[in-house]
Amino acid sequence: MYQVLVVDDEPASLKHICNIIRNRCPDFKVADTARNGQIALQKAEEEQPDVIISDVMMPLMNGIELVSEVKKRWPEILSVIVSGYSDFEYAKGAIQSGVCEYILKPVRPSDIEQLMESLRQRLDELYYEKRNSFLKKASGGTGNTGVQEIRRLFPEDLYYAAIYRKNGLPSRFSKGYSADLYSMPQEKIIIYGRDEMEALYLCPENLLNGESFVDYFAKVYARVKEEGAFYTAVVREEPFQPEGLPGILGELYRKLDESIVIGKDQIVTAGQSAGCPSLRPGQEDFSMLEYYVRKKSAHGIEGEIKRLFGKWEAEVRPQVWVEEKIHYLFGHLYSKGNLLEFNEFVLDDIFSEAVSMEEVAKNIQMLLIPGGELKTAGDRRKEEYEEILQYLDEHLGESISAQLICRQFAMSQTTLSKMFHKYGNSPFSVCLTRIRMEKARSIMNENPEILVKDAAERVGYTDQFYFSRVFHSALGISPSEYLEQQSGRSRSLDK
């Protein structure tokens, strides 16, 4: 509920406005009142209201002076001047400069209702952006939001939280390429993802209608699962007050990071003790592998990589553990001169795109075996890249993955990764999303009357709400709003 500070030196007028807000504006609450601008300024600092409604003519500090000072100190607070006809010329300068809105006396309930609905829409947008900013910072362990502000952003008494991720952890180098995903403003359950593969759910307790949150999220998990991918989910079983959210998010993300095991579907509880066997420190002996790399023995490299990855899979080693070992290995081999190239972008893509340990092992072999990646002339490689783009365009309505493209074009994932970084300036998955969104926009331009779910299916999304979040993240507008714009343009051209 948005907070309102009402300011007027006339008791009857003050009471009249407060009653209208209480009885006719359900999204607003009168947080406090004041009889002059000076007191109102003090209360604005204490209460941090969302809206100030003030009369013009008051002692000590008039309404224009008040809203001008509020605009300087707290630019996000919305101000409204209540003005009689005789005072309107005096207030017009502030109104025209955008410092405030205004209502003319005598104040009618319908005028207040109409104005407050307009302010509600502006506040909804403001809080939506602020909430998204908070989630982005909190997911990265940054930000220092106060308890009062968190309560404003998350107004319900109690929340539940859970997170799931498709495939591996986010690429360390994807920050400049992929966009964060946010639930749409009208969605009651708050959803956030650091990229398209992830969704954090924050569910108000009162939306569950007695259902267990664990049961609810199990249905979500079952619904989003796709073939050819693995999913890791972390669920917090107990509800919490919103001020505890920064700590809860840190707990969920840490648990997710330590729990992802490549190729393994799992739902874990946030409260489970860390330090499970798979995370225990382990010293790996890479001396035999280093020997085979130095001797350029393809057979030896293949056998040793197969042995290591088979051992790690049996020990249920999480991705972070395996990735750390492989990065150490490549760094060591490169420093000794046993590797001509150490491309961290490619290694990163191998882990973030992988769906099985066997697949990771094969791609690591390709990087270590001399001539493992067949060299192709630059012009031919560019042609292959263009052929892949054409294939994507013709098959966007189907399920597409890096693995499918590698099989279709008989190339390794390392080759695919290098190709898309070189010619597309981004990882394959990011490029695929970009192509899908551009195609979706083109479809909507040509068919303004199309249903969102139909547009989503034509570019490979079976969940229209998920598609809407990706579309909004990529283009800054929801699909329904975009279609409305296109439909309006189409009608204007027909006239």
TrEMBL record:
Residues 386-485 form the HTH araC/xylS-type domain. One of its GO terms (molecular function) is DNA-binding transcription factor activity. PANTHER family: HISTIDINE KINASE-RELATED, TRANSCRIPTIONAL REGULATORY PROTEIN HPTR. Residues 3-120 form the Response regulatory domain. This is Stage 0 sporulation protein A homolog. One of its GO terms (cellular component) is cytoplasm. The modification 4-aspartylphosphate is found at D55. It comes from the Bacteria. One of its GO terms (biological process) is phosphorelay signal transduction system. InterPro entries: CheY-like_superfamily (IPR011006), Homeodomain-like_sf (IPR009057), HptR (IPR051552), HTH_AraC (IPR018060), Sig_transdc_resp-reg_receiver (IPR001789).
